[in-house]
Structures are given as C-alpha cells and as structure tokens.
Amino acid sequence: MKKAPQTFVFAIVTALALAVMVPTTQAKGGGKPTKPKIPLPTLIEDVDAASHTIKIVSGEKRTVTSYTANTFTQVFINDKPGKFEDLKKGMRVSVGGKDGGNATRIDASDMTGSSGKK
C-alpha cells in the first residue's frame, strides 16, 4: 500500500516539473512572448484616370506596383460593379493581373461601405 502514495507524489512532481519547463523552452530567447504580425493592407497609392493606371502599395516593405486598366478590366467597389474613375487613393484593394501589366480585375473597398457613387 505504500507504493500508491509514492506513485501519486512522483506523478505530481513530474507534472509540476513539466509545467515549469514547457513555457521556458518554447519562448525565443527566454524573453517575452511575441505578438503575431498582422499583415498590412494593400492600398491604392495613386490613380491616374487619364492613363488608366493605378499604383498600389503592399507588404511589409510597402512595395509600389503599377497596373493599367483597359476595356476588359473588371472593377468592383465594395463588391458592386464600379468604374475605374470611382477608385480613390487609400482604398483597400486587390488587383488581378501581371505586375506592371494590365489589370484583369480590381476589387476595392473604401472603408466606409459606400461605393463612391452619389
């Protein structure tokens, strides 16, 4: 009967030792836990209605990429069909097409929920 209390005590000591060791072995450098990085949004940097070009800025390095819209480019603003002329600087955007080439589709949202039309 003495083995049961010894086994129980051993199990408790082992569990406590593991509980103390696990957080210190998982943290990098033994410091504070790091917050997950929230990806920065892709935004419209510039719209040139005359040449139908759009510049967007994206990623951690805030890389600027240009696209040209043509008659086949589909434009959606807040999930509704829109016009290239309705795009504005600062809108969140997703652009389909080859970097530096023609945009096949532009999906933008203006943060306020309106389509930009009055």
Overview in brief:
This protein has 1 helix and 7 strands; from the N terminus they run αβββββββ. By secondary structure, it is α+β, with helices and mostly antiparallel strands.
Explain what the structure shows.
The protein folds into two domains: 1-34; 43-109, OB fold (Dihydrolipoamide Acetyltransferase, E2P) (Beta Barrel). It is rod-shaped, with a radius of gyration of 27 Å. The strands form two sheets. It has a four-stranded mixed sheet with strand order 5-4-7-6, with no helix packed on it. Strands 1-2-3 form a three-stranded antiparallel sheet, with no helix packed on it. It is 20% helix and 31% strand. The N and C termini lie far apart (85 Å). A hairpin with a 4-residue loop joins strand 1 and strand 2 (53-58). The protein has one helix and seven strands. The model has no long low-confidence stretch (mean pLDDT 81). It is α+β, with helices and mostly antiparallel strands and 118 residues long.
Task: Give the amount of beta strand, in percent.
Answer: 25-35%
Q: What's the story with the biggest beta sheet?
A: 4 strands, mixed
Q: What is the second-level CATH architecture of the largest domain?
A: Beta Barrel
What average pLDDT do the residues reach?
A: 81
Output the number of helix runs. Answer: 1
Count of DSSP E strands? 7
In the residues, how many domains can be counted?
A: 2
**Shape field:** rod-shaped
Terminal CA distance: 85 Å
Query: In what order do the strands lie side by side in the largest sheet?
Result: 5-4-7-6
Helix and strand content put the structural class at alpha+beta
What's the helical proportion of residues?
10-25%
Q: Which stretches of 5+ consecutive residues score pLDDT under 50? A: none
The CATH topology of the largest domain turns out to be OB fold (Dihydrolipoamide Acetyltransferase, E2P)
Radius of gyration (Å): 27 Å
CATH class of the largest domain: Mainly Beta
- What series of H and E elements makes up the topology? HEEEEEEE
